[in-house]
Amino acid sequence: MTQTDITEDILIAIRRVIRAIDQHSRNLVQSHGLTGPQALLLTEIVRSGKITGSELAKRVSLSQATVTDVVKRLESRELLERSRDAGDKRKVILKASKQGEVLVKQSVPLLQERFQQRLGELKDWEQNQLLSSLQRIAEMMNAEDLDASPMLTSGAITASPEAIQDVVTPTDTPPEAEEV
């Protein structure tokens, strides 16, 4: 195999990963009306029962500002409720609404959950080899310092209703028509 062949095979593999993430993100929006970050936050809120925004931000590795924006969008859709802590009025407690709980219990599929399961099936040395290779690729693309959470999703983290609508009914060329 030539250097050109290897380079092309690596680029094709990277593009496949990107397309798989894009496709999953579109499917999530179409099936549940949620972006990946919205699904991630709502799932964590349901798991926790009640949680503060700062604790939620820590658990999902997103900034407090990003979590606040996503929470506002979820609240506007009546998928969660915010209330003041009875003991400490400075704290805001987040709790999923009944509608939010139902949506999560209908198994909102998160791509990283399936990935984590399959990664866990690999031997430790295989996991470490993948990590090392991906970190090296990020470095080669000058992306090692980009802020990123452990979430497999595409598009903006704080997608507006208009952006979600664009995913549900795209006006551009469908991703299947894109060239690799």
Layout of SSEs?
Elements: H1 3-32, H2 36-48, E1 50-52, H3 53-60, H4 64-76, E2 80-84, E3 92-96, H5 98-105, H6 111-120, H7 124-140, H8 161-168
Antiparallel strand pairs: 1-3, 2-3
Helix pairs in contact: 2-4, 3-4
Describe this structure in words.
With 180 residues, this protein is mainly alpha-helical. The protein has one domain (3-170): Winged helix-like DNA-binding domain superfamily/Winged helix DNA-binding domain (Arc Repressor Mutant, subunit A). It has helices at residues 3-32, 36-48, 53-60, 64-76, 98-105, 111-120, 124-140, 161-168; strands spanning 50-52, 80-84, 92-96. α2 (36-48) crosses α4. The longest helix is centred in the N-terminal third of the chain and has 30 residues, at 3-32. The chain is elongated, with a radius of gyration of 19 Å. 19% of the residues are buried. Mean pLDDT is 83; it is low at 173-180. One of its GO terms (biological process) is response to stress. Pfam families: MarR.
